[in-house]
Structures are given as structure tokens and as C-alpha cells.
Design a protein that fits this description.
- Helix content is about 85%, strand content about 0%.
- The longest helix is centred in the middle third of the chain and has 38 residues.
- The mean pLDDT is about 85.
Length: about 240
């Protein structure tokens, strides 16, 4: 297991696509903070909810971490490297478990980088515009640490989705369609039900300011349940399908 985990971490660390995803996520997190910080009046910017929205760029890392986890699996099937991987380590569950752990660690990095840039940009804008920090300690902790937890779980969910679909283009389209259509539409139409979806659970863990979302602790349990359900389904498919 340790050898396979080192191999999976090396793949993620040296794959250009993962680095580009991280760079894109970081840029969007900083850009989002700039938009929120510059589009509001100083009085509006002094409100806690406005500041929580400005500092919530870590949620961007959650989506990109999911995509990174998905690519960690689908890239192997796309380029045929899954065959030598399984020749080196024929125990499929060990390979899948190593990908899960590697993706979770990658998710932590995505969440940490996006949170750090969002906070750095947001606090700089507050200083420049002369607004005092109004975010309370618990909310600040959720905004700083929540994205790392959400991104880690979401990256594992991405691995599971990739193992289930396998086709890279199809998996990316399915993930994007869910995130931007199903998740957003259901939450907008029926918040009481939509908040239990994986995407909105991730937003709640990451500290997004929305009273319709679940409490962070409950949201973490919901996202963990979704992740485990998809992981079990991916394990069954992985055991029974040819490569």
C-alpha cells in the first residue's frame, strides 16, 4: 500500500493538468475576493455576511479538488496506464485505496491554497478600503479550515465518480452538469432538499454565508455519507469490471 500510495502521489505531483487546476482554482479564489471586495460600498463591506462571502474563496478549491480526483482515475483509462498500474499492483482495491488517499491529500492542498489566497486578498482589500474585520472567530475558523475538509472529501468523491464512469470526457461533463445545473437548480427551487446534495454540503462545510445551508457539522456528515456511498459503488465496479 505504501509503495502504491507513493506512486499515486508522484503521478499527481508531476501531472501538468493537476498543477493547472490548482493554479486556476487559486486565481479564481483571489478574483472572487476582489470582485466582492471592490463591488460593495464600505458600509456594505463592513457587514459580517459580506465579509464571509468575500473570504469564501476556498469553496472554489472544493470543485477543482473534485475534478482533480476524477482525473486521477479517468486519465489512467484514457491513456491506458491503468494496465501497467494493475500489473505492478494487481490488487485493485489497493490501487483504488491509494488513489483515494492521494486525492484526499491533494484536496487538502487545494482547499488550503484557495483559502489562504482568499483571506490574503480579502484582508488586504479591507485594509485598503478602511473597513474593520467583522467575521467572528467560529466563522473565520470555518472559512479557513472548512474548505480543506470539504475539498478532501470532494476529491475522494471525484475518484469514486471517475472509477464509476471511467470515460474522461463523459465524467467531466457529468460532474459539470451536476454542479452547475442539478445542484444549483434544486437548491434554488427547494432549498430544504437541495442543501443535502454533495455540492451544497461542501459549501456549508466551507463556511459559505447562506442561512439555507446545513450547519457545518451536519453538512460534513452528509458529504461523508455521499462519499462513502459512491466509494462503495466504485469498489464494486472496480472489482467486477474489465480494464
Amino acid at each position: 500500500m505504501s509503495g502504491q500510495l507513493r506512486s499515486e502521489l508522484l503521478k499527481l505531483r508531476t501531472t501538468r493538468t493537476i498543477a493547472l487546476l490548482l493554479a486556476a482554482a487559486a486565481a479564481l479564489a483571489a478574483f472572487g475576493a476582489c470582485v466582492e471586495g471592490l463591488s460593495r460600498t464600505v458600509i456594505e463591506l463592513g457587514g459580517e455576511n459580506s465579509q464571509r462571502t468575500m473570504l469564501s474563496g476556498g469553496t472554489v478549491g472544493v470543485f477543482f479538488a473534485t475534478l482533480a480526483g476524477l482525473l486521477a482515475v479517468t486519465s489512467e483509462f484514457r491513456y491506458g496506464t491503468i494496465r501497467p498500474t494493475l500489473l505492478f499492483e494487481p490488487r485493485r482495491r489497493v490501487v483504488l485505496a491509494a488513489k483515494v488517499v492521494a486525492a484526499a491529500l491533494t484536496g487538502v492542498v487545494f482547499g488550503a491554497v484557495c483559502s489562504a489566497l482568499s483571506f490574503a486578498t480579502g484582508l488586504a482589500l479591507l485594509s485598503v478600503r478602511g473597513a474593520d474585520l467583522a467575521v467572528t472567530g467560529p466563522h473565520a475558523a470555518a472559512l479557513a479550515l472548512g474548505p480543506m475538509v470539504a475539498a478532501a472529501l470532494s476529491a475522494v468523491l471525484g475518484v469514486a465518480i471517475g472509477a464509476l464512469i471511467r470515460n474522461q470526457a463523459g465524467a467531466i461533463v457529468a460532474l459539470a452538469a451536476y454542479a452547475f445545473v442539478v445542484d444549483a437548480a434544486l437548491f434554488g427551487a427547494v432549498p430544504a432538499a437541495g442543501r443535502f446534495l454533495p455540492g451544497k454540503a461542501g459549501d456549508a462545510i466551507a463556511g459559505r454565508a447562506d442561512e439555507s445551508l446545513l450547519a457545518p457539522g451536519l453538512a460534513a456528515a452528509v458529504l461523508l455519507a455521499w462519499t462513502l456511498a459512491f466509494a462503495v459503488a466504485a469498489t464494486v465496479r472496480n472489482d467486477r469490471s474489465d480494464v
